[in-house]
Amino acid sequence: RPLTQEEIARRRELAKRRHAEKLAANEGKELSEKPPSENSSEVTGNTGDTKEQQPTGQVEITTTKATKQEAENKESFIAFARVFSGVVRRGQKIFVLGPKYDPAEALHKLSSQCSATDDLPAVPHMACCTLENLYLLMGRELEDLEEVPAGNVLGIGGLQDFVLKSATLSTSLACPPFTPLNFEATPIVRVAVEPKHPSDMLQLVRGMKLLNQADPCVQVLIQETGEHVLVTAGEVHLQRCLDDLKERFAKVEISVSAPIIPFRETITRPPKVDMVNEEIGKQQKVAVIHQAKEDQSKIPEGIQVDSDGLVTMSTPNKQATLSVKAVPLPEEVTRLLEENSELIRTMEQLNTSLNEDKTHEINQKTLDRIKEFKQKLEQNLQGRKWRNAVDHIWSFGPRKCGPNILLYNFAGYERSVWQCLGNAVKEVSKYRDFDNSIVSGFQLATLSGPMCEEPLMGVCFTVEKWEINKAGEMSTSSQDSEECDAMEHKQNEDTTPTSSCTDEVCSVNEQQDSSESVSKSPEKISKQKGEVSPAGCYGPFSGQLIATMKEACRYALQAKPQRLMAAMYTCEIMATAEVLGRVYAVLSRREGRVLQEEMKEGTDVFIIKAVLPVAESFGFADEIRKRTSGLASPQLVFSHWEIIPSDPFWVPTTEEEYLHFGEKADTENQARKYMNAVRKRKGLYVEEKIVEHAEKQRTLSRNK
């Protein structure tokens, strides 16, 4: 029969009394052997409850005692686990398998009969550890256990050095790891963190490492600039992480930057109507007062732009010419590329190993996924414009796994990202030596766009023409031969001893031989005389190609209508009927858009579903509670990226637009506001006038 409340309370009191008696019996002995400063407390990774723990038993302590010894206590993590098979015992040696552990790779090096007690060579994503403590999680209480059978949930102590977020524990190397936990909340809001006193930097780094272990949703990064960055799911999560960092993990004063909101840059099809919904091309053009559009569309000398947006550029030494065009990708393709970024990264690794002639076994399941991915791309890229586009995909970007595509559309070159499917072509052509330079230029261009140095999204670049002159081939081959000669000469110098007289004679003879070989090549004579060859003054040819490709992609992007993409939250609000109007007012003021409104059955509560830009979400929850007197509560989850419809570079050009927006057109442009804010944060040039038409202000009253 189930226990009554009185029986449960009586048993709890008995258990507490037993623990107290057990501790009292050993208290004097323990205190004499071990000073109180060495007592340890356990912190659970999920709930954060702290529990004072003695070596032989546990006792509930008062809050005052806990606060006195809090500074002296050492914190450690308890792993939250479930036993799926077998029995877990305290002191057992066991394998810790990370989420990326591959049993097939490990069994090539080791046999399946190996145990964690053996001395084993290093295997990627695998470690051995001893299970120090096993606990029964009883709310705030922690009960020590000796063993736990299958089907139970338990806490394990001593894994903080082996597990980052999640892992699989097994006594067998052949065990495949469980997939890591997937959370609906995607980290999107980032801040830079630094200590107020530079001497506390080590404590901050240690605290961020502990926070990364304790919170499954947070990400901790060190940027290229050296900043320590926290990436969190939203404003409330960010505040919770910062409080934990200050009060619990790092225990130092920290300075936090303003939240860094990510944006993306893209291009769209040319609009058919203007800002006043008039069809473009049928109005009479008037003189443009603002010259911003003209200034932006000015193209430097040596760059040709067609009416179709095809940009043609040459390298600085005029030995190679590139023609690049940018077109927007369909939304379905962009979404497909985002969802399969891990698969694209795997394809890139396989292609790299094939190009380096390394033997790499490809899993049949992975091959099937790649074929399915290719078929989906072919289904979504249909029409005359995308004919044979999937077979001509050269690379993805940025970082070779992003939502942008590079195509090649010129003759004499055969290479694509589908080499891992078995259709690799080993060819020797003039393009083969420098194709990595073109791909590198594309990666740089997609990593930072021209508007505000944010990554691109949903853009397809097509290389329509790539010509290399004979002089370019000769100069590159001569550069290679010079490097080889220089390496040989250096090796001769290194291996030639110069200690004795006879050795010095030998070295003189070798120098004469090397001078004879130099006299055979006229280029080396000119370099010895101090003259610089025309190809050398611009640097290596591969570097010129990278820079030219990057600039060509940027100009091709600027030849099309540019737009910013904002990160969007899905916002679910529960509110009563009397505050519905105030909820809509707050949403409209913050650029939100209501998608759905429905009434919960049997209540007077409405459930509103809306989308809200992440950039406008700070203070949203507080404001909506304040306006509705606490009768509405929002729930924000990152959803998708959405194009901001307004053009950040728009200026009025027609008579109707002048009449509607005025001469200065100084109404607030949302995209321009976001773009200028990002440019200011990054230290880029911002085109804005602080004072316009300034006049002297004075009172008109007569002096008395």
From TrEMBL:
Protein name: Elongation factor-like 1
Sequence segments annotated as region (Disordered): 13-59, 472-532
Compositional bias of kind Basic and acidic residues: 21-36, 521-530
Segments of skewed composition (Polar residues): 37-59, 494-520
Gene from which this protein is expressed: Efl1_1
GO cellular component: cytosol; ribonucleoprotein complex
GO molecular function, one term: ribosome binding
The organism of origin for this protein: Piaya cayana (Common squirrel cuckoo)
Residue stretches making up the Elongation factor EFG domain: 563-652
Gene3D superfamilies assigned to the protein according to its UniProt record, in alphabetical order: 3.30.230.10, 3.30.70.240, Elongation Factor G (Translational Gtpase), domain 3, Translation factors
An annotated GO BP: cytosolic ribosome assembly
Keyword GTP-binding: yes
Entry keyword annotation includes Hydrolase: yes
